Amino acid sequence: MPKQNTEPSPTFALGVTRRTKLTQRFEQSGMRGLLRWTGQWLYWNGQLYHIAIARAKLSRAVKTNELRLRWKMRRRHKKFNIQDPIIVYQMGKVGSTTIYRSLQELDLDVPIYQLHFLTELDDVAAWAQEHLNQPATALRAVERARRVRQEIQANPEQSWNLVSMVRLPIPRLISSFWENIESNVPEFQRRHAAGKLSAQEIIDIFLHNLPHDWAEYWYDRQLKSIFEIDVFAEPFERDAGYRIYRGQRARLLLLRLEDLDRVAAPALYEFLAIPHLALRDRNVGRQKNHGALYREFLERLRLPDEFIARTHNTRYALHFYTYSELEASVRRWRA
Q: What are phi and psi of 243, to 5 degrees?
């Protein structure tokens, strides 16, 4: 008979060694010492120190950036003579990230924020926690908005530069719907991964469950209530593609996304005296993660006349766009 191997396996031996060490540590230092030693062992052997180092670096970077911005804000002669903070402020899915990134690259001497809301922040946070699988990004946006809102309230003499954008209503609805697809379509990820979700099912949800009035009231609730600028009080210069509004606490540059490539540079030169602004590449939304399904959605989508009329016969749509522009934007989807 072959001789049996009576030597313990390396894994077994390692386990015995660790148990021996734990027993010795407990006998020497008691439970508190054992827990302290265990934590230190996990910190180094589990490489948790990498996380601690990364957090420390991030914290230092944030503090360094804050100190740098405070120093720049004290400069008497600021870049392009821009004295007041800038908020790129809009309802979402109108292309504002392009403007925000383009302004960031200029390394201006004032803070630049990108926000979607400054009011009803508790409601926004509650919605994110209830409807989003991963609400962390939305909750961080709420906290940024709280800090800016506090700054606005604490400094009533401070003026602000606001940049906002509008977009044709139904293309914006589609983009917003797909940006929030996981909250709009129940169990989207599981059903999509299992191949149990059709484009037609998504179309039915889009047509019957989507609110149409967000763009209609955003400028009243989120802009007018804070900065006392009413964009509907005066005609919008559609041919120009942008307009500048002036209020007691802020100036507002409002652009149409469809005219952005044509008017961004002259508009921002008139608004902030920024010469020859170069736009960053357009932001690609989350629909890129579901490309085939998204493309099929667009190909199969047919919009009933009632849906189109309900969306186009609004103050928002008729204020910023002509009837022919609205009609052209949905021609491919007419039932």
A: -150, 150
Phi, psi of 257 (to 5 degrees): -55, -40
Element (H, E) at 312: helix 305-312
> How far is it, in rounded angstroms, from Cα 82 to Cα 151?
18
CB 166 within 8 A of CB 320: yes
Classify strands 160-166 and 86-89 as parallel, antiparallel or unpaired.
parallel
Q: Helices (DSSP H) in 74-168: which residue ranges?
A: 96-104, 121-131, 136-154
Tell me which H or E stretch contains 306.
helix 305-312
All structural domains of the chain with their residue ranges:
57-333
Alpha carbon distance 320, 255 (integer Å)? 10
SS (H, E, C) 71-93: HHHCCCCCHHHCCCCEEEECCCC
CA neighbor of 181 nearest in space, from 170, 192, 171: 192
H-state helical runs in 210-290: 214-218, 225-227, 260-272
Task: Count how many residues are written for the chain.
Answer: 335
Q: pLDDT tens digits for 59-109?
A: 665 566 565 556 565 666 789 999 999 999 998 877 889 999 999 999 999
Q: Give the whole-number percent of the chain exceeding pLDDT 90.
A: 59
